[in-house]
Amino acid sequence: MFKTVKRIIDWCGEFKGRLYIGFVFSFFSTWFMAMPVMAAAYTVGLLIESAKNGTEFDRKWIWMSAVFILAFVLLRFLFDYLRARLQETISYELVARDRLAIGEALKRVSLGYFQQIDTGNILNSITTGLHSLENMGMRMIDSFVGGYLNFLCIFLCLLYFDPLVALIALAGAFLSFFFLLLVSRYSTQNAPVSAKAGRDLTAATLEYARGLPVVKSFGQGGASMAAMEQSCRDCRDICLKIEWGFIPSNCLHLLALKIASVAMAGAACFLGLSGAMSFPLMLLFVFFSFNIFGGLESISDSAHVLGVIDTAMDQLDALREGNYIDKDGKEIALERFDIAFRHVDFGYDERTVLKDVSFILPEKTSTAIVGPSGSGKTTICNLIARFYDVQKGSIVVGGHDVREFTCDSLLRNISMVFQNVYLFHDTIRNNIRFGKPDATDEEVYAAAKAARCHDFILALPNGYDTVVGEGGGTLSGGERQRISIARAMLKDAPIILLDEATASVDPENEHLIQDALSELTRGKTILTIAHRLATIENADQILVIDEGSIVQKGSHEELLQQEGLYREFVRIREKVEGWNIE
Hints:
Blueprint: H1 2-12, H2 16-53, H3 60-87, H4 90-107, H5 113-116, H6 119-161, H7 163-210, H8 212-218, H9 221-273, H10 279-289, H11 294-297, H12 299-320, E1 339-348, E2 351-361, E3 366-370, H13 377-384, E4 392-397, E5 400-401, H14 407-411, E6 414-417, H15 428-433, H16 441-450, H17 454-458, H18 477-491, E7 495-499, H19 507-521, E8 525-529, H20 533-536, E9 541-546, E10 549-554, H21 556-560, H22 565-577
Parallel strand pairs: 3-8, 3-9, 6-7, 7-8
Antiparallel strand pairs: 1-2, 1-4, 4-5, 9-10
């Protein structure tokens, strides 16, 4: 329990000063909440004692006590307001900072990280996990620290007036603390299971939503819901289990405090009736005994969520302290832009994809890669961009091993057009401008015209300000492809990687896109993955890859003179691309 409290305080970092001042305000708020009860009880005690002794009661005391009570109430709300202003905004600022930090961290990990940890896990950590910290972190720590701090001060006051009553209060607090430890231990044991159930539910929901087109086309709605239904049941069961386990210890915690309150009231009455305590003071103690533990009673909710918060902080640390692929990288400004693979081996998990691959892409030349599906073509592009690190050998860009760069300084020199285009849920203008955030509208329009997408964009309801759906789902594949080409044109990087850049373009527009790509790639180092002859036959060199190895290398004319995979590839492509309807 104390470990989690310390973690939250450390998490506050530069906001610790505000947190500590908030504790002071919380302390005064609690005291000013108790003082009206004490003032009223003491006044009533004086009134009863005056009536009992037949003495005249000073009526001014009633008005003075009313003024004091009103002042205490106002002061209580003032200090509570100041505490909230200082403390309760801390978590929102910290969580916003941490979410952005996680976003920055995820840019710097290998793409293999996302194969080990699914999207649902990451999403759940950033949303649900940090939401727990955001909503409960500050309230929990104020309740825990403030509750015991206030009790300590009250205990010292009670000790001054009457040691017996003070010791009863201390015994009740210790007994309740024992039961709180049970609550905390139970929460800590079950929080990881609860977090896993939440992650599984998030992942199942995402998978269900993404797979709906397939579900509908095959009419398998019932089967597709099975995983989601099971995740919902598991999440419900673990939450119920935690709640049922929490209830007995929580009730015992509250019972210990209530018994201590009754015992304090009984002891005060005994002392008052025996003459060891004045009647007004006795009445004050009786009234006060039922309010003294108010701050401790609410701690049970804090102890209940300590495990949840601790697990959320573990998830946060795991995301922020990921194995950054560029942790030893430096900012490097390149003077040339040739690329060399030197005896590169690479694989995903246990599957080897590239084996002893070596080749050179001279600066300002074009290279095409052809080969069967699964032979490792896209992997080569991913390794150049350092989405993954090689397992053996090296990749050198401009005379520097890619492992010397930070991700940003390397990718600053590279534009990529993928086969599977992703557009952000934003305007088309901003999706194109993603290649150059400070580009003017005129530069955006020029890139769109060069990529042959200006006309269809203007035909949309809001033109360049049309918002595309997540992933660009409201546009056709060819339209998304052309927007991605415009984005790459706007970036104007010296190295261009094209992974089936015309795969989704309709035949009527393919020659226009080829012209646009010619504009994009002029005077740059180009690596193209393609299956269409028109895309590869004019390359300066062609690499033929099969089963993870370079099996042929040369120009189009040179490779046609050789027996091998490339000649067979050309024969098949000519047959496919030359078909006609008779």
